[in-house]
């Protein structure tokens, strides 16, 4: 599916399907008016039948509209003109896309990007439309013997904008396409089962990306981690026969003296909980506990595709969290790479254990900023549900920057406090820190744990437990927060 920016006037359009908006009640959008006059009032005639009154998300597919060179015209309801907000617009575009993909049209042109959407720019509309289209066309790699009948995906889709807007529109579309591909990489990795997507497999993916874009890639092995004193990471890995990997990829798009942005992604390829075993129901979903790792790989791919003029390093601590005779036990105490000792009171709070050593390790890069991304706590799902990522930072300005990036990308994050008042929930009688802080404010105490290891730099933590995955009928990886991260990087590169 090829997406392009065009400014073809409607009367010259030859795409197999033209998409135009209709407002409630039976009010023509700007493009619909043009279409109506070319067709000598045909739309008025159709609308007067009452088959379509412009209700948000409604659609009506017309064929052979008089004097229109396109075979099909797809009307899409935009709701009330005075209340066209972002959510309504997205609902309408999703309906139009569903109807378009259900038709046999091989090419299409969207004539609804010129409608004013409250609080959103033209760039936002272009990006969101591109992401919706790519999400619709996305086919999760299924491991089925007989593939299902292939979905009908249009070959060429153009976004029609005013001629004087086409160059910014093209840059926006490039950004959107890079984000879509990054999300697809993250989705594919998140959906792969734990027996295929192992730490070694993730390392292989990093190497593949590095080769494709000529980036530096380093994989630290167990013996390297032993030398570095990454005993918290090693403690999590010791109950599994899959060897742990610590994956690093460096992208150099900026000046060599420019401090890198570091993204750290939690890479637990399966989280059974360890000796603090999880209940059996839905345990399969813990294959996506490497969603943080997948998203930093996706963001790196987008960054390299866009050739952003920044330096970026991604770091992925990766292992499995399983129980066996060698596994770490509740009460065990380990000395982290930072020198602080941790009492592992619950082996299921393993994300913070692998992250703390990664966060200490990345100090050596003298980072401009470090952002870790992790499916860290079930408590975050309770707090924010599946809409917002939990956002924590030791710097207000960075928190605002990430919140804004999430808004611009429509991949939103919401700030939660990191006040010192929560820190003593991590007190231990036997070590410097316990790895759990009790039931109250579970996401915050997890972030507090990480904050003990991030004092050397500006840092933020994104808890994506609720946003990286969908359960139920639509079970699968979402590709979040690749859009947020890519927007953050593009903004740092002055590209958005
Ligand atoms: N990977 C889980 C967090 C998680 C839970 C992500 C549900 C997505 C959906 C994490 O390793 C974990 O098990 N956290 C524990 C922490 C607790 C033991 C303090 C949790 O949230 O229950
Ligand atoms: Mn766990
Ligand atoms: Zn986990």
Please tell me about this protein's structure.
- This protein has 496 residues and is α/β, with parallel strands linked by helices.
- The chain is built from 14 helices and 21 strands.
- Strands 8, 9, 10, 11, 12, 15, 16, 17 and 19 form a 9-stranded mixed β-sheet that branches. Strands 1, 2, 3, 4, 5, 6 and 7 form a 7-stranded mixed β-sheet that branches. A 3-stranded mixed β-sheet has the order 13-14-18, covered by helices on one side.
- The relative contact order is 0.11.
- The mean pLDDT is 97.
Rg, Cα atoms, Å: 25 Å
Average pLDDT confidence is: 97
Q: Which regions have little confidence, pLDDT < 50, spanning 5+ residues?
A: none
State the domain count.
2
Profile the largest sheet. 9 strands, mixed
Primary descriptors:
496 residues, alpha/beta, Leucine Aminopeptidase, subunit E, domain 1, Aminopeptidase, 2 domains, nine-stranded mixed beta sheet, seven-stranded mixed beta sheet, 14 helices, 21 strands, 21% strand, elongated, binds ligand BES, binds manganese (II) ion, binds zinc ion
Q: Summary?
A:
35% of the residues lie in helices and 21% in strands.
Fold topology:
Blueprint: E1 2-6, E2 17-24, E3 27-28, H1 30-38, H2 42-48, E4 59-63, E5 72-80, H3 86-102, E6 107-110, H4 122-137, E7 156-160, H5 166-191, H6 199-213, E8 216-220, H7 222-228, H8 231-237, E9 245-252, E10 261-265, E11 267-271, H9 291-305, E12 311-321, E13 332-335, E14 341-344, H10 351-361, E15 369-374, H11 378-384, E16 389-393, H12 396-409, E17 413-415, E18 433-434, H13 442-451, E19 459-463, E20 469-470, E21 476-477, H14 482-492
Parallel strand pairs: 1-7, 2-5, 2-6, 6-7, 10-12, 10-15, 11-12, 14-18, 15-19, 16-17
Antiparallel strand pairs: 2-3, 4-5, 8-9, 9-12, 13-14, 16-19, 20-21
The structure holds ligand BES, manganese (II) ion and zinc ion.
């Amino acid at each position: 599916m090829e997406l392009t920016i065009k400014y073809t006037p409607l009367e010259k359009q030859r795409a197999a399907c033209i998409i135009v908006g209709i407002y409630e009640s039976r009010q023509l959008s700007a493009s619909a008016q043009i279409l109506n006059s070319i067709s000598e009032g045909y739309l008025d005639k159709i609308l007067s039948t009452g088959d379509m009154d412009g209700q948000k998300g409604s659609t009506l597919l017309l064929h052979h509209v008089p004097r229109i060179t396109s075979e099909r015209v797809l009307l899409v309801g935009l709701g009330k003109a005075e209340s066209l907000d972002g959510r309504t617009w997205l609902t309408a575009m999703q309906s139009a896309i569903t109807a378009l993909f259900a038709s046999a049209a091989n090419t299409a042109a969207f004539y609804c990007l010129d409608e004013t959407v409250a609080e959103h720019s033209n760039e936002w509309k272009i990006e969101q439309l591109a992401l919706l289209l790519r999400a619709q066309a996305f086919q999760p790699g299924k491991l089925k013997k007989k593939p299902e009948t292939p979905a009908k995906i249009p070959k060429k889709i153009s976004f029609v904008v005013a001629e004087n807007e086409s160059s910014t529109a093209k840059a926006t579309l490039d950004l959107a396409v890079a984000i879509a591909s990054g999300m697809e990489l993250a989705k594919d990795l998140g959906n792969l089962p734990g027996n295929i997507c192992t730490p070694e497999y993730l390392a292989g993916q990093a190497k593949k990306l590095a080769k494709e874009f000529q980036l530096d890639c380093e994989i630290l092995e167990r013996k390297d981690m032993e030398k570095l004193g990454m005993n918290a990471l090693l403690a999590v890995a010791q109950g599994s026969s899959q060897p742990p990997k610590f994956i690093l990829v460096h992208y150099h798009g900026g000046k060599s003296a420019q401090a890198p942005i570091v993204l750290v992604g939690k890479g637990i390829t399966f989280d059974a909980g360890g000796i603090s075993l999880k209940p059996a129901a839905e345990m399969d979903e813990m294959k996506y506990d490497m969603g943080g790792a997948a998203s930093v790989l996706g963001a790196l791919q987008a960054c390299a595709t866009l050739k952003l003029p920044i330096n970026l390093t991604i770091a992925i601590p990766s292992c499995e969290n399983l129980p066996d005779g060698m596994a770490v036990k509740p009460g065990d105490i380990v000395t982290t790479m930072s020198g602080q000792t941790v009492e592992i009171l619950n082996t299921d709070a393993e994300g913070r254990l692998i992250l703390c050593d990664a966060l200490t390790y990345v100090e050596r890069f003298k980072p401009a900023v470090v952002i870790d991304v992790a499916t860290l706590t079930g408590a975050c799902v309770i707090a924010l549900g599946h809409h917002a990522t939990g956002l924590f930072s030791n710097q207000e300005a960075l928190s605002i920057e990430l919140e804004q990036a999430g808004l611009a990308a429509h991949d939103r994050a919401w700030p939660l406090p990191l006040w010192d008042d929560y820190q003593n929930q991590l007190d231990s009688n036997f070590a410097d820190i316990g790895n759990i802080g009790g039931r109250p404010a579970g996401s915050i105490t997890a972030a507090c744990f990480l904050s003990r290891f991030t004092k050397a730099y500006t840092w933020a933590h994104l808890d994506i437990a609720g946003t990286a995955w969908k359960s139920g009928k639509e079970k699968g990886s979402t590709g979040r927060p690749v859009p947020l991260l890519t927007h953050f990087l593009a903004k740092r590169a002055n590209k958005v």
